[in-house]
Amino acid sequence: MRHLRVPSDQTQxxxxxxxxxxWLSKASVLQLxxxxxxxxxxxxxxxxxxxxxxxxxxxxxxxxxxxxxxWTERLPVALQALPQDTWPTAYEIQGDVLMVxxxxxxxEHQTAIAQAMLEQLPNVRVVCADNGVTGDFRVRELTPLASxxxxxxxxxxxxxxxxxxxxxxxxxxxxxxxxxxxxxxxxQVKLLxxxxxxAVVVADPYAGVGPALPLLLTEPAxxxxxxxxxxxxxxxxxxxxxxxxWSAKHEGNLDPSxxxxxxxxxxxxxxxxxxxxxxLLVNLPHDSLSHLPTLLPILNQSGQRLLRGWAIVERAxxxxxxxxxxxxxxxxxxxxxxxxxxxxxGFSTTRxxxxxxxxxxxx
Length: 363
Ligand SMILES: C[S@@+](CC[C@H](N)C(=O)[O-])C[C@H]1O[C@@H](n2cnc3c(N)ncnc32)[C@H](O)[C@@H]1O
Known about the structure:
Layout: E1 2-7, H1 11-21, E2 30-31, E3 36-40, E4 58-60, H2 77-80, E5 92-94, E6 97-100, H3 110-120, E7 126-134, E8 139-147, E9 156-160, E10 163-167, H4 179-196, E11 200-204, H5 213-218, E12 223-230, H6 233-248, E13 257-261, E14 279-283, H7 288-295, E15 303-314, H8 318-331, E16 335-346, E17 351-362
Parallel strand pairs: 6-7, 11-12, 11-14, 12-13, 14-15
Antiparallel strand pairs: 1-3, 1-4, 2-3, 5-6, 7-8, 9-10, 15-17, 16-17
The structure holds S-adenosylmethionine.
């Protein structure tokens, strides 16, 4: 079958064009040599050398027929006879790890489900039953069900905003859903740099595997140093690994560059972790507000500083949250120049997840 040979980053453009022109075959797109894809063409599509191909060439390859559209079509035939609503409709993928919540009544089919998912999703290495989040470290209780290559490890590498990051959902908290918040953090820290007229030191004492950091570290001349940590030693191991890669992409010195495994509330007693940061991130949503008074000493207590955090609060108390933040800031001897509390999403019928941003000023 004829395939149009295009660079992989132009695949979507050419798929769209060929579909619109009625040239696209139902076969699948082929992976050709390094960085190139083959768009499958119908007989009626123009010949090789036609100017409409804008210089792209046509190659002849065996067509790759499309397989089943859904993983349930890969289940053993006897199971396919069960009603469609027997099967889970949602799953989450982090890197090459797939996590699926299974109701008790389909546990007996867990291996068949995992095998069918592996067959359907070529980028998945291991399929795990997701038994929910546990403990203060908010890690998932995962049971590996089937692996493509025998490796049942849940450590995996993901990409976010173009940067690679090691994660392990069974050992450390990570949520891809908060990626827009991390973009927001970048914007807020850039505004702070503008206010201060210099690169800034950021503190992230509940850093997890560190997802807030790659955007900050790779933005030219944004950070002059960092103080990061987590209480979960396994998160700190991954954070260390990630920081090695991200710091290598940072231009210039990073001073301080401190990574600790500790309770954020004890940072206040260490001179190396207090009075240094220009921006403080507080991401322990169930406890951010109650921990906050112990965290403010992390900030450099002169001039304008940024406090950005996330919290779960009663929706009815949203206005009160702002007052609480102002009280805490004033309790630390600073003025609250601005305080914003923004609802991000619902959390339960009465509670919501909010992001807060404050500019504090010390004399
Ligand atoms: C909601 S997660 C946020 C992680 C990370 N900032 C992110 O956005 O993915 C909260 C993190 O705080 C850590 N943690 C819980 N209690 C802590 C404490 N008292 N001091 C420091 N870290 C803590 C947990 O291990 C977890 O990694």
